[in-house]
Amino acid sequence: MRRLLTFTLLTLIAFTGWTQERSLTVTTDRQEILIGEQIQMTLELRSASADTAFLPNIADTLRKEVEVLSRSKVDTTFEGAQLDQKILRQSFVITSFDSGYFPVEPLIGQVNGSPVASEPFLVSVQTVKIDTAQGIIDIKDIEQVPFAWKEWFEKNWHWFAIAIIMAALITWLALYLSKEKVVEEKKVVIPSRPAHEIALERLEQMRKEELWQKGKIKEYYSELTDILREFIEHRFAIPALEQTTDEIVTAMQRYPDFTNDERTTIKRLLFLADLVKFAKEKPVGQENEGHFTTVDRFVKAFIPQEKETASENKEEGNG
Fold first, then answer.
1. Ramachandran region of residue 280, left (φ > 0), alpha (ψ -120 to 50) or beta?
2. Range 20-126: architecture per CATH
3. What residues contact residue 202 under an 8 Å CB cut-off, 6+ apart?
4. pTM here?
């Protein structure tokens, strides 16, 4: 009896772990349509509540023949007795104007930076059936009327002249606007104090404010990423306060000091902050504290060691 209870408990634990497994599913309200009809497609990404998850980034087409007409906002819900499972859902309206059978390759989402793939699915597009037994019947015989170019030109020559003038003006304007203009480079003003000292002071002040514990999630991530951007700008002369997330990561690629993991971590944090800003994501619990620790470690990892190195060289010279 004891062995049976132990086996049952282990089975329940394994089943619970399976239900929290990461998965991406794609469902459609139908698989076959006529040309131009629409299909409702729904994406659902399941993961643990503490995971950082992103649905696939879908462009205007799933493939050349299948177009995306519209999309809904991402809906985030939580399930489970402890709300330990996060579910992201997004709906799309798709259609096709070509007949045939079009397989759609697996869509790829992300959970904690790891890819999660869906199953492929098929879109079947049929043509409207035509009764060929009736044949083609003309409504009325076609009359052939010769076109008089001379008469048309005499009546419309002024439109022709206006079109030439407009084309000349557009060409001149395009050439004028295409001239290279001198763009002033934004200079990064480096403060007199070391960048890491300023960043660590702001982080300590932020810790005392306890923003996320008070439910101020947007303010928390805005302040956290502002500290990070300011440190990157002052420490590495990268204008991070004025740049987008992609621009910052691209600039970091030119610095050998950064590892791929560091660039990936910073990109993930900045991208998450953008989602929080527009209310598309709401991190919970230890995830917020973990991102704080990420910034703190990043700042401390790049504290300059010039003074210590100079002292060591001086001692070696005296010896």
1. alpha
2. Sandwich (2.60)
3. 223, 227, 230
4. 0.39
